[in-house]
Amino acid sequence: MDVIRLAPETIRTRRALDGWNEPRIIPLAHPPDRGAGTLLCVLRRLLFHSLLFLLGLGLGLLGPWVWWLDREAGRRFADRQWTQDSRVYARPLELYAGQALDLADLVVELEHIGLRSGDPTRPGRFARSARRVELHAPAFPFPDQPQAAQRVRVDFEGDRVQGLSDAAGRSLSLVRLPPAELGELLPTGSDERSLVRLADFPPLLVTGIQAVEDRQFRHHHGVDPRGLLRAAWANLRRGGVVQGGSTITQQLVKNLFLSPERSLVRKFNEAVMAISLERRFSKGEILEAYLNEVYLGQDGAQAIHGFGRASEYYFGLPVQSLAPEQIALLVGMVRGASWYHPVRNPERAMTRRNQVLAQFRDTGLISPTEHDRLRERGLELSRSDQRRQRPNAAFLELVARQLRQDYHDEDLRGTGLKIFTTLSPSAQRAAERGLADALRRHERQPGELQGAVILVEPSSGEVRALVGDRQAERRGFNRALDARRSIGSVIKPFVYLQALAQPERYSLVTPLMDAPIEVPIEGDEPWRPSNYDGTSHGEVALMDALAHSYNQATVGLGMELGLPGLFRLLEQLGVDPGPARHPSAFLGALSLTPLQVAQLYQPLAAEGYSTPLRSITQVVDAEGREIGRYPMRLRPIREDGALALLDFALRHAVTDGTARSLPALLHDDPGVRGKTGTTNDRRDAWFVGYTRDWLGVVWTGRDDNAPAGVTGAATALPVWAEVFNALPSRQLNRQWPESLEWFWIDWPTARLANEQCPNARAIPFIAGSNPTELSDCFEPASTSRRRRGRNR
């Protein structure tokens, strides 16, 4: 029986209410314990007050914490400054009808830009046939004006561009292709990103990332309760974490401000900061930040952040040119960039991409038909796949050195500069391959020799290619810039240029004595130079002495001219020859780098116009504003007549002198001028040659400067020929200066002849410097003079 214990007052009350007349006796099981009731009451009060205290304490502490999170989220988001590595670009290739360019070189240029073989109706693809290339160049923000994507047809006739037209068949006069990206300058070593404005992202990417990661993005205020419940339910059913439930804003907060640890505290902070961002900033600002911040893989030690950089890294394309299936792959990688890495885990990446394509279809972003078509496509990653090979390290070093003349490192590092350079990707590849292949064929032991190659456009002084190692991708000692080696006989043209600049004393037919010579040296033994073949050749024409590189004749001539004049000339041409002043400098006992040698020869190849060699044309900041321009600084050389005579003599060196083996090595000799050089004990081999379009310098030898068994004609010259056979070229057709007069000479004497004389040879002279003595075959009724100037 249940017993109800009532207090006396209660009994009285109930009696009144119920109309009891007689008191009822309620048996009690136990007498009331007043002490226990008091204790229980105290405990209850203590518990209640404790709860109130804890609640107050929590509110007191949590309030400031939430306030601090709110303030920090707003401040740090507003003050965020993303670093971008400064990027270096090759020169943009301009196409026009009649241009010397073969189809294979254009394909090389397109591949360096990032285009791939495929359907040219899609951006970033090209198709080639026997005489035509159809391409779809991606858009590019040139500093002068942004250039939209464009479809172009390029027709070829031999090794020339025959014509250009657009997709509708309309003729085009000029097409400028986007420049190839060469690499980063002074990378920060941590993050890589290419910032892109929200308006410049493809619409499918902007909507697709919301469809996959946060469908309520436009409606929630930073946290999506329904998404959290849905994720919790999914995780409960699966027995593990399969959904995060975080909104795009929460993901951005975690990436920007928080650690990746999974804890309730971190989730609380994340939610508070996400709400704070949504309260302070627009959806567009948040989404743009997210698209530029999200982690999408690694490039070596550098993390790839943002869709802009990921697009360039994985596909070699700007993000604006991505195809739908490429967008789907990158969107799918947001869930786990390493897990779905398309190179390391292609099958997993393909599965994930197709899942995203299905989500695109389910949300109406693509049609079912398009979905079925896109899921059949491969991943089509860029050739560079994951880590870039950075094959232009030697050239980039030249760029960095020239930039440091105008900027501090802190101005170049992480500021997102765009540096436009002069490099030609197709020429660079020709130089790299030519050096590596030719050295393998001409060295005594495998790997014994090293080398350097520099290619320059003579008229502008722009460096088109630079190789500092036979393994071009290897970083380290840059021989093109830092190998100071004796230059041997490549110095001789400048000795003879001094002489030819004095037409009253010297001409190309002036007899020189190639005989033993003794040069007194103060405080030392006399210097007695000898020829390479150990033979003295007696009296020779000045042009023959240069073409055959006779040492004794050159030293004799140099001593007549004086050593200071040679050094002054070198300095005028932009090269510091160093402090040593020894007569052996007439034979090239000077230590110069290949780049300095290229600087010396530039005015010879540019028909008398000198300009400093340059590798940079323009620098713009991250916003596309020009902050630096590097124009040509041409300076005419006064002795244009002497330069023309020297040019004639250097052609003679190729046809009849030490470089006479060159024409046989070339597919087509466009009229090359050149000079060989070999140093003592055959330690160094040089060849410098130029055409109408190219100046090339080649050095080969050993790094330890030991005898290498090399010569200019046998080692460096074949390298030069290998390189130039891969370059487009045009026949030299320069007009001689009007100051020159041509005479028939009874070669190799310094006597006038008639054209009918057996040894008659037309030789140019600066007006008034021609010989007057007549040859025995000269007929008085005729004339020895030809017209002034002529095409060569």
Written overview of the protein:
The chain has 792 residues and is an alpha+beta fold. The protein is 37% helix and 17% strand. Helix 6 (248-257) packs across helix 7 and helix 17 crosses helix 19 (551-561). The protein is elongated.
What's the layout of helices and strands?
Elements: H1 8-18, H2 34-79, E1 86-89, E2 94-95, H3 103-113, E3 116-117, E4 125-128, E5 132-137, E6 140-141, E7 146-147, E8 150-157, E9 160-166, E10 171-172, E11 175-176, E12 181-185, E13 191-192, H4 203-213, H5 225-238, H6 248-257, H7 264-280, H8 283-293, E14 295-299, E15 302-305, H9 306-315, H10 324-333, H11 346-362, H12 368-374, H13 393-404, H14 409-412, E16 418-421, H15 425-442, E17 450-457, E18 462-467, H16 479-482, E19 485-486, H17 492-500, E20 511-514, E21 538-541, H18 542-547, H19 551-561, H20 563-572, E22 591-592, H21 594-605, E23 609-610, E24 616-620, E25 626-629, E26 635-636, H22 640-655, H23 662-665, E27 673-678, E28 684-690, E29 695-701, H24 712-724, E30 740-746, E31 760-766, E32 785-786
